[in-house]
Each structure stands twice: as structure tokens, then as C-alpha cells.
Amino acid sequence: MSAAFSWIRPEPHGIHIVPANCWIDPSRAVDTALVTHGHADHARGGHGTTIATPETLAIMKLRYNTAEGAQPVHYGEVTKLPGGVQASYIPAGHVLGSAQILLEHAGERVIITGDYKRRPDPTCPPFEVTPCDIFITEATFGLPLFTHPPIEEEMAKLLARLNANPEACVLVGAYALGKAQRVIAELRRAGHTDPIYLHGAMEKMCRLYEEFGVDLGELRLVADHTKEEMRGSIIISPPSTLNDRWSRRLPDPITAMASGWMRVRQRARQRNVELPLIISDHADWNELTRTIEEVNPQESWITHGREEALLRWCQLHQRRARALSMVGYEDDEDD
């Protein structure tokens, strides 16, 4: 790392903004944390002050019971940090409230993306390309084999299987924050107006999305309805429930899984998924490389995923880049 950017330092438990003594998405409690979004590999409780979008703070309060020290910042709003550092939050298109964080100091601009995607999503504002000097990008799907199909195709597959099996139900495994709400909203956009049933673990987050203006249509709890009532319906549940005892109460469930990892057939087989749906809340390979080209930074720092392939792509395209290894950054709940 050049001396010019010594004020921002990747360390094992997060990215350290040295003049302000603040941290981006730290994996342990610190005095001041700037949080990009509410997934557990980026957000945690115990900080003295947590600076994030109102949506992310609400998600953190719901999931981690964090309320003290919350400092909301809206998209585009400039926050002045100690040491002459300014921070701005810019939409990342990942989940509700997700943000890239633009840091400005000594005439230099650094963007930490957190997680992001480039596909349209009815549940959150789209990613905004913002020029900078250093671009810190995730690489969850940083291999050329990962190309996500249009979500309209995946919704059509889901609805076709449902229509072909009116006496059964389709049980979709989807993570509770982001993926579940996106699948529901895309089903509505595809014209599916019937009630959608939820595992109890999904309800509070869906209701929070609705509080922030995301229309999810009529949602019902599985626990409140009979097997007969749920025939011909779509049911959304955590991935862990697809093949456990809970699913036995459902009418002949066809198991589906919404994940970018469904591109890998072995993953679908391991989970006994009958209907793999390639739906991701992360950028695919083409979107990762396109984003670097559009942002056009002096240097890209690559973290949180398949760093080597994206680093090699940068080298082949005469773009300066380095790979970061961040302890605690494991993509275990949003894909």
C-alpha cells in the first residue's frame, strides 16, 4: 500500500480509518463502527457508536438488539469524522439499507462497497457508480463460471413448477434478510397475487421491510393454516428447514433454493434441492469486472470471496489491484 493511503488500513478484524480511529464493518466491538449493511458477517452489536443508514440500524435492532449509540445517516448525507475524514453513504443495491461508504481525506477518495449487486431489485435502491481512487470490492462470486441469469427466468421456472403441481406446494429456502423479501417482491412483479406463506422466522423481517415501504402483498404464517389450505401455494422458509421435521406439515413440498450457489449443481444435490433457483444478492463475475471498469479507480482492493481470479483479471487488464484477507468475513448467510 502506498504511503499516500496510509490513513486507511485493512486489519484482521476490519478496515481501520486511522485518523478517525473508526472501523468499517468490524468483526469485534469497537468504539465507533461504520456499518455497510445488516448481515451478520458485517454487522454486530456492542459498539459504542454505530453509524449506518436508518434501515440498517432498524435491522440491527431487530436482529441483534442494538439501539444504544445508533447514529443514522441517509444516502448522500456527509458525516464528518475526527481527523478531517468525511464519510458518505451511497446505495449498494444489496439489501434494504445497504450502502457503499465513500471516505474522503487529504484529497483522496476511498469506497468500501460492503456487498453489492448490479441487478434491479424492487426492495432496495440500485447500486450507484461513484468514482474514487481506491475501490474496495467484494468477490463472493469472483469466478467466471458465476453468471446469474435474469431473475425473470427464475421466477418463471418457479411459477411453472407451482402451476404444474396444484396439489403440492413449492417450499423456497431463502435467507431471512434480503433474499426472502426479494423473492416475494419479484413474485409479485411477475403477477403472482396469491397469499405467500412464511415460516415464523421470516415474519419480523418481512414486516420491517413493509414498514420501510416495501410492498410484499398478502403474507400468511404457516403455523396458522392447515395443509389443505396451503396446497398450490409458495412457502418461504430458512434454508435449514428444507429437509427437516418442520417441512412435514406441508402438502407434498417441492424443495427449491434461491441462491447464487445454485449455479453449482453439486451444491443443489448436497441440499436435496429439486428446483435450484439461481438468485443472488451479490454481483456476478461480469458485474464485478464491469463495476471496476466503470468506477475506474487507481487501485482495487479485493476481499470477501474469490480474490485470486479477480486479482488476475485486473492484472491482465493493466489495473492495479491487491487481495485482502479479512478474518471474520465469511459469506454464510447472504448469497
TrEMBL record:
<dbReference type="InterPro" id="IPR001279">
    <property type="entry name" value="Metallo-B-lactamas"/>
</dbReference>
<keyword id="KW-0436">Ligase</keyword>
<protein>
    <submittedName>
        <fullName>Ligase-associated DNA damage response exonuclease</fullName>
        <ecNumber>3.1.-.-</ecNumber>
    </submittedName>
</protein>
<dbReference type="InterPro" id="IPR050698">
    <property type="entry name" value="MBL"/>
</dbReference>
<dbReference type="GO" id="GO:0016874">
    <property type="term" value="F:ligase activity"/>
</dbReference>
<keyword id="KW-0269">Exonuclease</keyword>
<feature type="domain" description="Metallo-beta-lactamase">
    <location>
        <begin position="19"/>
        <end position="175"/>
    </location>
</feature>
<keyword id="KW-0378">Hydrolase</keyword>
<dbReference type="GO" id="GO:0004527">
    <property type="term" value="F:exonuclease activity"/>
</dbReference>
<keyword id="KW-0540">Nuclease</keyword>
<dbReference type="InterPro" id="IPR036866">
    <property type="entry name" value="RibonucZ/Hydroxyglut_hydro"/>
</dbReference>
<dbReference type="GO" id="GO:0004521">
    <property type="term" value="F:RNA endonuclease activity"/>
</dbReference>
<dbReference type="InterPro" id="IPR026360">
    <property type="entry name" value="Xnuc_lig_assoc"/>
</dbReference>
